[in-house]
Amino acid sequence: xxxxxxxxxxxxxxxxxxxxxxxxxxxxxxxxxxxxxxxxxxxxxxxxxxxxxxxxxxxxxxxxxxxxxxxxxxxxxxxxxxxxxxxxxxxxxxxxxxxxxxxxxxxxxxxxxxxxxxxxxxxxxxxxxxxxxxxxxxxxxxxxxxxxxxxxxxxxxxxxxxxxxxxxxxxxxxxxxxxxxxxxxxxxxxxxxxxxxxxxxxxxxxxxxxxxxxxxxxxxxxxxxxxxxxxxxxxxxxxxxxxxxxxxxxxxxxxxxxxxxxxxxxxxxxxxxxxxxxxxxxxxxxxxxxxxxxxxxxxxxxxxxxxxxxxxxxxxxxxxxxxxxxxxxxxxxxxxxxxxxxxxxxxxxxxxxxxxxxxxxxxxxxxxxxxxxxxxxxxxxxxxxxxxxxxxxxxxxxxxxxxxxxxxxxxxxxxxxxxxxxxxxxxxxxxxxxxxxxxxxxxxxxxxxxxxxxxxxxxxxxxxxxxxxxxxxxxxxxxxxxxxxxxxxxxxxxxxxxxxxxxxxxxxxxxxxxxxxxxxxx
Length: 522
What we know:
By secondary structure, this protein is of the alpha+beta class. The protein has helices spanning 3-55, 69-91, 96-116, 125-134, 143-160, 162-166, 175-242, 246-275, 279-291, 296-301, 304-349, 363-375, 399-420, 455-458, 476-486, 515-521, and strands at 58-61, 64-67, 359-361, 383-389, 395-397, 425-436, 439-448, 490-494, 502-509. It is built from 16 helices and nine strands.
């Protein structure tokens, strides 16, 4: 398949998914607005009854009084107008017919309120407010039946009952056209707002579809890389067995597995950050601002929500900035982990002795990298990492071999704490320089408050195939001890027994292997 054909297929898939997302967003918006109008129409019915009782509670005829017809009109006619929109909003939310019926019912309630108030001009503003509420649907079509109902109501009542609509005994024949003209004037802006809102919804849906497609491609690429890594591991095992080096192969797989655990933790953190991102708040803020485009100044200065909007945007910007920093940190941890895997696999694939690749490294920084690779950039809440680093300048080390050992020790410490069942675990890491007969020696130390090591197991803890972890294979510490000896160093452990934790120490010559290596690193 050519690249252009593949690209067209991807774009078509994105467009299809965007259309589905747009439909889902629109349906959710329509249902939510239907429920809003169901409550609003109910409240308007009650308000109409209250207005009728307040303005004309009783009528007098001679010595007798009776309830004014306006009260009965508000109760029965208002209930009749409200019943069908409320029923459809409850039983058929989101349907086009429901929106149209709600639009007609809302305008008829406006007409009823105008009649009950004796045609007061103030009550006519209820029409304009109702049109603004109808624009919440972001569907300009609902404004058509609403406008037709308003125009017909003003025309018919203006001709046959002007007192009911205009509050005067007689009115000019064209007066209803003036009212209809103002309604159409508002419709122009509301239609533009609805069209713009619909376009923005479509744009958001398309961006979400693109993000989903990107995530799918990234996951597919990770799966492909993982498959290739598994194939490389299988090939390495086969080669090692043919050469009588199964021990090396299992050690490589163990160390790769440790690094993959940290990569998986960082990937999970990034996924969680994306899932819980505050970007949804930006959409809510845009909708709030769009709803108050016509009175933006008054909204920002007088409305309680508007006054809190600028501080909220500042906090939102800070939150999004922190999310970006956290995700970059996690992705850098993934990058370092993959680089370490590449070095481990690449070194063992040669199946021959070669000079170590030495680099000038600050020990404290190397330990921090190992912590990130073992636990991810964000450690769990019940695991405390205590750092006790001496100020040691850069020294020449085989970076990836030391990382291999440290990651193994840190991973074992975490498993030991988990096996102990402690509510809060603590791992203390440190670096120091010690004087010896051979000269200065650099030490890396990992101490945990985990399950500890029985005295009988201390002598064989570094043996091939020995492990105290039920899920372990016994290759990690054996491989780490061999790597330490390869750097003219030692790896030992101290533990007071079961339940008392353990301390592992990597001891190696300060400034590495030889003068030439130092010069190359410099």
